[in-house]
């Protein structure tokens, strides 16, 4: 009974600290938004009903023109790519308050015009797309297991197609995909299981459907399907993922329609729903919402097929519990917040429907509530680090108590 109660507390994330002085302190979940024009990161707490509230201070400084944002799986580090100064800002998350503080060093160099960033599921590697000035590369970094600071791998970059933008890694950590905005293609890479370095698959790219400026890519939790938002093609490409090679192949049909200017795509943690932001400023201003066929992975529009947002919705994030979704509204400096219906997956606005952000908010990400160990084996071979303990003995002592 104690374990069941404890697990419920951790999943909901509302306890500031349930282990006392002897264990790690787990705080409420938090959300962070990169603000492109104000060179800052907005920081929010997530309340019991999934509502956002600004922390104090509401923002922390970033580099010049921040855009992409990613959080490590252990929720201890946040990274923000800065387009104009070709860098990645690095932050440590205060586990109790959610406040960000700059790491040492506060930033690390990236390639030309970095835009997108993702962290591998094991938290050991990060990848950044460099799309300006004909850079057309992906920077790849090791993440220090103690400090969370990034360091370039060897080689520091790998080539990609024209105008790389979105990037993601499959849940098994074996494959990475990059959308090439100017090349109407998706680059696909093998991830070395030891070093985390990327190498092109064969074939190195696959076409986008419908053709036209692919921006974002998302993979289902079971690793069987991928979806790509195509801004000019005005649709969502849908792909099967080969379970052995990780190579993409188009589903039938190869795409489904979306609203005007599809920008980002997100999948719920249960793999049953997908959402696409339609950011054709002044015209789109909606989220397309889809059911995911449990057998084929194909998308079909929900009823209703869209829900309204603020002006210029660009990025979307779903909470790890699958109960809330948040969308950044680029032109009105706000974040729309939604409840996710537990049965249908349809979105409905929370109250209030929006909360303020910095100027021109772009990518948003949410921390993951920590798990707790249920066996001594999970504490061994460095496993204790995943749960926030200081050492293996502390982790085992927790298991013994519960």
State the gist of this model:
With 402 residues, this protein is mostly beta strands.
Can you describe what's shown?
- The chain has 402 residues and is mainly β.
- It has a single domain (30-369), classed as Methylamine Dehydrogenase, Chain H (7 Propeller), CATH 2.130.10.10.
- The protein contains 2 helices and 28 strands.
- It has helices at residues 2-12, 392-401, and strands at 30-35, 40-46, 52-61, 66-71, 77-82, 87-93, 100-109, 114-119, 125-130, 137-143, 150-159, 164-169, 175-180, 185-191, 198-207, 214-219, 225-230, 235-241, 248-257, 262-267, 273-278, 286-292, 299-308, 313-318, 324-329, 334-340, 347-356, 361-366.
- It has a 4-stranded antiparallel sheet with strand order 3-2-1-28, with no helix packed on it. A 4-stranded antiparallel sheet has the order 4-5-6-7, with no helix packed on it.
- The radius of gyration is 20 Å and the shape is globular.
- Mean pLDDT is 90; it is low at 1-27.
Provide keyphrases for this structure.
single chain; 402 residues; mainly beta; disordered N terminus
Helix content percent band: under 10%
| Apparent shape | globular
- Reported by name, the CATH topology is Methylamine Dehydrogenase, Chain H
Query: Architecture, according to CATH?
Result: 7 Propeller
């Amino acid at each position: 009974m104690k374990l069941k109660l404890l697990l419920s507390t951790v999943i909901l994330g509302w306890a500031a600290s349930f282990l006392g002085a002897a264990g790690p302190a787990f705080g409420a979940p938090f959300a962070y938004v990169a603000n492109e024009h104000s060179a800052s990161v907005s920081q929010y707490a997530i309340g019991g009903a999934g509502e956002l509230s600004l922390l104090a201070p509401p923002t922390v400084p970033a580099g010049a023109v921040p855009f992409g944002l990613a959080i490590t799986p252990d929720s201890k580090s946040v990274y923000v790519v800065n387009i104009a100064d070709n860098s990645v800002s690095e932050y440590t998350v205060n586990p109790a308050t959610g406040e960000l503080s700059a790491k040492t060093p506060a930033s690390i160099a990236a390639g030309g015009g970095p835009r997108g960033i993702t962290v591998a599921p094991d938290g050991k590697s990060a990848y950044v797309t460099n799309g300006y000035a004909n850079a057309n590369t992906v920077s790849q970094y090791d993440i220090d297991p103690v400090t969370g600071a990034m360091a370039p791998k060897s080689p520091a970059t790998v080539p990609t197609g024209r105008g790389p933008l979105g990037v993601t890694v499959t849940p098994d950590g074996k494959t990475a995909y990059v959308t090439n905005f100017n090349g109407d293609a998706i680059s696909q890479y093998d991830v070395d299981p030891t070093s985390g370095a990327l190498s092109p698959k064969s074939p190195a790219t696959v076409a986008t459907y419908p053709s036209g400026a692919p921006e974002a890519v998302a993979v289902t939790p079971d690793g069987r399907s991928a979806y790509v938002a195509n801004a000019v093609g005005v649709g969502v490409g849908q792909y099967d993922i080969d379970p052995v090679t990780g190579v993409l192949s188009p589903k039938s049909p190869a795409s489904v329609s979306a609203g005007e200017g599809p920008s980002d795509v997100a999948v719920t943690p249960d793999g049953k729903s997908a959402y696409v932001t339609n950011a054709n400023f002044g015209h789109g201003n909606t989220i397309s919402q889809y059911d995911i066929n449990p057998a084929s992975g194909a998308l079909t529009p929900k009823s209703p097929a869209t829900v309204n947002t603020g002006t210029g919705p660009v990025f979307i994030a779903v909470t790890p519990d699958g109960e809330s979704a948040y969308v950044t509204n680029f032109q009105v400096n706000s974040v729309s917040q939604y409840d996710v219906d537990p049965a249908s997956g349809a979105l409905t606005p929370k109250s209030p429907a929006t909360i303020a952000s910095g100027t021109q908010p772009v990518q948003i990400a949410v921390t993951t509530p920590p798990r707790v160990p249920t066996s001594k084996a999970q504490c061994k071979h460095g496993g204790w680090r995943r749960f926030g303990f200081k050492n293996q003995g502390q982790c085992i002592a927790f298991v013994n108590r519960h």
